[in-house]
Design a protein that fits this description.
Layout: E1 16-20, H1 24-36, E2 40-44, H2 47-56, E3 60-66, H3 75-85, E4 91-95, E5 110-113, H4 118-128
Parallel strand pairs: 1-2, 1-3, 3-4, 4-5
Helix pairs in contact: 1-4, 2-3
Length: 132
Amino acid sequence: MASQTETTNPGADRPVILIVEDEALTIMDLGDVLEGGGYDTVQCASAERALSILQARPDICGLVTDVQLSGRVDGFDLAASVAQARPNLPILIVSGRASPDPERMPEGAQFIARPCAGEDILARLKGLMPHC
């Protein structure tokens, strides 16, 4: 298994994706799909934790975040903070409740609506990250 919460397989030449989702089954399923698609994952449930992980892990080369998160900061605000800190990092925002808000979407970020399959997220991610 390549990852558990906040762990990865060091030494592997696989791109690392940060998944931010507070639903345990959703994050596990998505992690399995992305790992099966050639990525390693780092997983957490809050935007606050995600920001500290991104600071500590320059090897992370993509972000997938839900809009609804545990903690005070939602996925749109997380994406905006990440876009400022790491402007070239591909960002995919996923939600079954919110709709894409042009005022809150960072430039270059993409939105995917649920219900969607993990494979849909994987395909969109691969399109965002041709260099990874």
